[in-house]
Amino acid sequence: MNIGIDVDGTLIDTAAYLFEKGEVYFHRGPEDNGTADVKKMFSLTQKELNRFGARFLLPYCIKSPIIEDAAEIIKKLKEEGNRILIITSRAFTSRQGLMGLLSRRILKSWLKKMAVPYDAISFCDNNSASKEAHCRMLNVDVMIDDNPDNLLAISQSRPVIAFPMPWNKDIGKEGIIRARDWQDVYDIIKQQEWLLPEPR
């Protein structure tokens, strides 16, 4: 089975990081914790958003811990014969030039540090159409993601597992299976295997 896995909000608790750093930096809580868009979350101007990103994006990319059980479950899935495909729209990783190169290196270094095994990594533009296209290109059988737009777009052509983040708590649609945590992700994949092709 080809298993697609997102990074931000799926391997990293992006919500917890944004809420914590945003409250400290802006001296107020989020006005909308149901969105992954920091600008909307804290009602920021573009200048405020740029300053926040300049201060916190790099530490987030380098130092964030991995969500509990994620590395162990992914390793187990790979050992069982599944192909692990990291499919991410992490900021700057799809860009050409030095910024893109550095962003991709930082992410690969983080995955290695967190002992996340994978067979391939794919860098998408920051929109659901791009991520869905990468899923098709890589022949993904099931995708694990947190972004509501991605979940809805990808579910049109293949099963998706919604990893729990505040911004996807209300999403509900046929083809989208909600998980509670990474152990639940594993159990869902094992239970759904009869719907999917045998591991290649």
Q: Low-confidence parts, pLDDT < 50 over ≥5 residues?
A: 196-200
Strand order, sheet with most strands = 3-2-1-4-5-6
Overall spatial form: globular
Instruction: Summarize the main sheet.
Output: 6 strands, parallel
In CATH terms, what is the fold-level topology of the largest domain?
A: Rossmann fold
- The CATH architecture of the largest domain is 3-Layer(aba) Sandwich
Number of strands: 6
Class of the largest domain, according to the CATH hierarchy?
Alpha Beta
Percent of residues in helices: 40-55%
Summing up helix and strand content along with how strands pair, one would put the structural category as alpha/beta
Rg result: 17 Å
Separate helix tally: 8
- Number of domain units: 2
Write the CATH homologous superfamily of the largest domain. HAD superfamily/HAD-like
Give the SSE order as H and E letters. EHHHHEHEHEHEEH
Overall average pLDDT: 94
3D architecture notes:
The longest helix is centred in the N-terminal third of the chain and has 18 residues, at 46-63. The chain has two domains: 2-13 and 66-195, 3-Layer(aba) Sandwich (Rossmann fold), CATH 3.40.50.1000; 14-63, no CATH class. It has helices at residues 14-26, 38-41, 46-63, 70-79, 97-113, 128-137, 148-154, 182-192, and strands at residues 2-5, 83-88, 120-123, 142-145, 160-162, 176-178. Mean pLDDT is 94; it is low at 196-200. With 200 residues, the chain is of the alpha/beta class. A six-stranded parallel beta sheet has the order 3-2-1-4-5-6, with helices on both faces. Helix 4 (70-79) runs parallel beside helix 8 (182-192) and helix 6 (128-137) packs across helix 7. The protein is globular.
